[in-house]
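Ticket #4471: structure output looks truncated?

Reporter: J.K.
Steps to reproduce: submitted the chain below (153 residues) through the standard prediction queue, then opened the result file.
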Amino acid sequence: MKKLIFALLGLVVSSVAFADNAPSAPRVSVFSTSTDWEAVTGLNLSEYRGTFISDKELVGRGLVLYYLDGFPCYGLGYGVRVWIGPNGQNHEHLHIACVAAPREIKFAYRNATRDADQATTTGILTCPINDQGRELTIKLSDCVKGPDWDEYK
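Returned output as attached by the reporter:
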């Protein structure tokens, strides 16, 4: 029994030693700087709600938008994904917290039907914001498509 335990222990030790010598991919640690923007800026966070004015050409059979955090705002978990239907209707709203009113908002986007499975988005969509109140209106026809993800390589 002791021989079996020592043999297993030897395998574990040798596999760890081998793993230490094998090249490994660098580890990436994601830390959001938005976690304490009030303290960093001295400004108070306020919640903003965004509604969308549809654009048939952009929406097509449906448009899924994922809000991309960026100063002065970050997304609130329950409102960072919005689906806009081909009829222009949506029952979801963008919910973000900001230390100042945003002048533009960026989304990762993809065209898909409402109940489509999660899939990779296409690229970035940048939308100007003209409103300065807490009820933001995002006019999709004013948004600009950025490069597709493959173009970032």
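Triage note (M.O.): checked the attachment and the full token line is present. Residues 2-21 form the longest helix (20 residues).
Status: closed, working as intended.
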